[in-house]
Amino acid sequence: MDVLTENFSLYGKGFLGTVELTVYSSILALLLGFIMASFRVAPVGSLRVLGTVWVMVLRNTPLTLLFFAVLLGLPRFGLVLPFKVFAVLALGCYTSAFICEVLRSGINTVPTGQGEAARSLGMTFGQTLSTVVLPQAFRSVIPPVGSTLIALAKNSAIAGAFSVTELLGTYKTLNELGYSIIWTFVWIAVGYLIITLSISALFNVMEKRWGVAR
Amino acid sequence: MAVDPLIELRDVNKYYGQLHVLRDINLTVGRGEVVVVIGPSGSGKSTLCRTINRLETIESGRIAIDGRPLPEEGKGLAQLRAEVGMVFQSFNLFAHRTVLANVSLAQLKVRKRKKDEADRRSRELLERVGLASQADKLPAQLSGGQQQRVAIARALAMDPKALLFDEPTSALDPEMINEVLEVMQQLARDGMTMVVVTHEMGFARSAANRVVFMADGRIVEDRTPEAFFTAPESDRAKDFLSKILKH
Fold it and tell me: pTM value?
């Protein structure tokens, strides 16, 4: 217990760091995932290829490797940003590949007749997707999107290895100060639980509200 | 009848892989004409109907609506589709929207009408198909026949030049078929140009100007309903009619 009370501000900073990483990366991942999913079902061939390559590359790269590529690679091309921004980029892009596939499977649950009806009324591809297909796809993807974002929250720990302030990284300082390693990690675990359980709770509410009624 | 062609198909061919589903189809539908397409299942009649607004692409031939050839995928095609309404076998009402919103949606998005103007038009059309009281329900709360009438209202909301019906009553209980056919009869009397794929011979007899009989991807006969039903020329049509008119 002492570990927590005596180092509350350190834990607090780490906790907030993880929350920030999670929130910003989630927004980026949802946005990019949405765009890429639209590309993957688009009638234009080149967009479909772009979406497919995006998913293939990002989903099949270890996240740590991606962090190295972004944090060490991008500065070589003259792009120098704070490490935290790089971390959000790496996490967001990585997770967007998974979000894209989740959204696409959601799109596939919507009967083709829905899209055909919309197109037969003269709606464009974009209108069909945004007003008819995606709102119905959205209902069935709430649970898997939740899981993906929980995974993202936990993956954010990797950023700690690249000197971004986040929850897991606090153990190094505490360890050097001589605190019990077990209790240090117990409180870190509690911190992660607070974040992941909040995400679960949020998605549970969303599912109750908008999920597919059975 | 003076032919003022609205829908024209010339030498249309379509394949699904090896399967040749439409063979050298030539068909002209005049303005205000009601053409009923009948034939055994797998004869290509639904495919024919769906090629007219390019829900199915064709391998060769030409299709023109009101003198203009069907555009490629894109804005032009979307505009053309707004002119040609379609009613599906499985209704395909937007499941997440109310009945009123179903009829209004494309008016807002495609015709760019104001919301109150679109809703007023939608209520008018729902009144016309006898469903004004159901406007605020979701499609799943309606019977099949009611859903199909909403689908007709939705297609009419675009003020189309022609309507395509792809087996509109095939998914309905027998009791509900009539309520849909009555709406279609009324449309026919009002002079709407219609292409109707159906198994309802009664409708074909009473409402059609012409009956097109298809088999194995070809148009075998294209005649008035009276001539077709009383004296079919081809053996294929005789065989088909003897099977379905027996009961």
Answer: 0.82
